[in-house]
């Protein structure tokens, strides 16, 4: 058994290759902290529940598919209430901030943090930060009570507002310190969690008894380690409406083509799942799977074939797909970024629609009718559905349990169906992407019957790589990921 630690993570090694990537705790840097009995112990609703409290040694494996001789592998700390807490209810001053793009479920998470703190831990001082990170130092804070947040889960967006950019570590931590805040709940995507890690480091440098806890939010599902992000199911469901409309339009015209653009800046999860859910989609294009238009095995050839076979077709395209083709065509276009430094994309939906129209304009015997639907912001702005509401509730409750128990520098996340605390650096070190040599993409290809657009060179590269086949299925194909990152840069 050995332990290595730094500010961000404590790695505990056990027998048979067991590794616990543990999260920091207040007691790592503040000695002799008082502890208190968890108020849930005397709460009639919970005290009768057998084993309601999580055992200190409970951990959750990152990989559940193992072989006879596999080492036990990486584990994360299991989330949930602990017998002892590191805050008395009256001492807690918590704040919540939402950053980055919108996502269904943000309001549910806010509501559930406020409710969990109050109903489970008797905490009444909870504040909202207005408009993302910059709100810490440029706006007044908002008081949140169970009553004021009671109905917010029925609305899309975030009642706190959100923003990109404006992360000023010193000003943010000064504000936290000046206002006596000791629990900071940060809801946001990969960029937000990077910002949370920076805040946590600064808090630790100043030796403050302040918890920094993240809740991963990303409609794109681009955060690694976790099973999926909240709002994703809602997005897939909402996308069905656009796909249905595209299908109805396409079916009603001779050689009708419906094109639907969905979100997914660097990864095509929404497009892939929306396609699998719909069954009306004939072609799904995602950033991870480069495609080409002309020639054998190209997109035009497939569109023509599909129209001849079926008389109509539906194309779903993720916004980040084909960006390298657009860049080639507009080599002189200015490379723009948003306030957080994210690359601003060109409209691939419009582009592909025009390319298809131009192609068929040269084929007078095959006139087409193409309708382009861009529902991207409509999908992001809806309230979360039932299953996402449950997911948001569990995430928020787990996060509050962890903070009260003194854990800090963590993101609350679902791993293999279990709530866990994940160190920030595991969440921020890379982005989750669709692995096109994985089973899920193969399932999509067999469902749509579209070409894979893989060139012989790509296939050879995968065949020749040193990893055994089973690792490809676990989604760890470094050769293809490297290729994808290079394409997307
Ligand atoms: N490396 C970083 N260090 C500190 N702050 C960061 C970093 N990257 C992003 N941020 C801050 O995090 C906030 C949100 O980042 P961003 O706009 O990239 O959205 P996100 O959290 O990734 O969500 P999404 O991409 O899903 O919309 C912004 O205020 C940004 O300034
Ligand atoms: O226009 P905005 O709000 O900056 O956000 C657009 C981006 O945000 C995301 O929804 C991620 O939050 C991406 O899919 C999209 O590219
Ligand atoms: Mg992001």
Coarse morphology: elongated
Low-confidence stretches: 467-489
Continuous helix count? 17
* Mean pLDDT level: 92
* Percent of residues in helices: 25-40%
Bound molecules: adenosine-5'-triphosphate, 6-O-phosphono-beta-D-fructofuranose, magnesium ion
In total, the number of strands is 18
Pathway: Carbohydrate degradation; glycolysis; D-glyceraldehyde 3-phosphate and glycerone phosphate from D-glucose: step 3/4
EC number: 2.7.1.11
Domain Phosphofructokinase: 94-401
Site (Important for substrate specificity): 191
Layout: helices, strands, pairs:
Elements: E1 2-5, E2 10-13, E3 18-22, E4 36-37, H1 44-47, E5 59-61, E6 73-78, E7 84-85, E8 94-98, H2 106-121, E9 126-128, H3 135-138, E10 142-144, H4 169-178, E11 183-188, H5 190-205, E12 211-216, H6 232-251, E13 256-262, H7 269-278, E14 283-285, H8 299-310, E15 312-318, H9 323-329, H10 348-361, E16 369-373, H11 376-380, H12 386-404, E17 410-415, E18 418-423, H13 424-428, H14 439-448, H15 456-464, H16 469-473, H17 478-488
Helix pairs in contact: 2-12, 4-5, 6-7
The structure holds adenosine-5'-triphosphate (ATP), 6-O-phosphono-beta-D-fructofuranose (F6P) and magnesium ion.
Adenosine-5'-triphosphate binds next to helix 5.
Organism: Anisodus tanguticus
Catalytic activity: beta-D-fructose 6-phosphate + ATP = beta-D-fructose 1,6-bisphosphate + ADP + H(+)
Site (Important for substrate specificity): 191
